[in-house]
Amino acid sequence: MLLKMAAGDIHYDERGSKEGLPIIFSHGRSHDHQTFVRQVEHFQKSHRVVVWDLPDHGKTTVRPFTFANAAEAMESLLDHLGIESVVHVGVSLGGFLGQYMAIHKPERIRALVDISAMPIYGSLSKRQAKTAAFFMRLTMPLFPNRVFAWASAKKMAYGGELETYVKRQSLEFGKKRLLQTNLELMRELSRAHEHAVEKKTLLIHGARDGNVLIKNGRKWAESEHVVGHHLIEEAGHLCHQQKPMPVNEAIETFLTSL
User: Fold this and answer.
1) Which residues of 17-30 are buried (b: 16+ CB within 10 A; e: fewer)?
2) pLDDT tens-digit series, residues 180-206
3) Neighbouring-strand partners of residue 14
4) I need a labelling partner for 182 at 20 to 30 A (CA). Which of 4, 32, 65, 137 fits?
5) Whole-model pTM?
6) For the segment 226-246, what is each residue's pLDDT rounded down to a tens digit?
7) Cβ contacts of residue 252 below 8 Å, gap of 6+?
8) Residues 217, 223, 226, 227: what is their CA dihedral angle, to the nearest 10 degrees?
9) Structural domains in the chain plus CATH codes
10) If we measure between CA atoms, which residue out of 135, 147, 159 comes closest to residue 238?
11) 3-state SS, residue 201
12) Residues of 117-136 as b/e, b for ≥16 C-beta within 10 angstroms?
């Protein structure tokens, strides 16, 4: 389905009962709503499920991706669907977006499930972000797009259909959008902000995910609003696709506590 706006089209799908608890799923960088196939299958049985393509991703034509653009697009989608507030489930970039919404548009977020993410504010110093941005600008033009697609597939997946999906999405996304999105993320991660996330939050990481994400996740789990931190064994960054059953079970338990 498409929501047509002046800024572009938002591509989304809605499943389940409109009487159920509304949940919106936001995917990671370069991916699209299809990453949540197993979550949609599970949660549509008892919840109102919305999946969508973030700005500049998939079939959504709102551009470019910025957290401000994505927040406005999500709010427009919720308004269109008549949903006042949702449980937000986000993976990686989508997890950071959920936090951004919880801070800047808190009335739209009931609770958060963050998968393969860390705190959006305070995780990087400005120096670290500038250094990372410098090397991205320096090195990315040196390699063809297929190299980044191959590297993403190897880092996030372990063969099979998941690796094929990641590679295909990365090739379609391209280096230009990859760099722009990475730079936007670096800016947001290093931005000082007086407010922290205050919504009830569940954290999930794959045990094979990056050490920085898991380390910051463990530190974040000490916060009062974080009610649990699950490590999914034998899974990496896309643990919701690699091991959907334990991820879905963790989310389901969290939802019943709301």
Assistant:
1) eeeebbbbbbbbbb
2) 999 999 999 888 777 778 899 999 999
3) 50
4) 4
5) 0.97
6) 999 999 999 999 999 999 999
7) 42, 43
8) 110
9) 2-122+195-256 (3.40.50.1820)
10) 159
11) strand
12) bbbbbbbbeeeebeebbeee
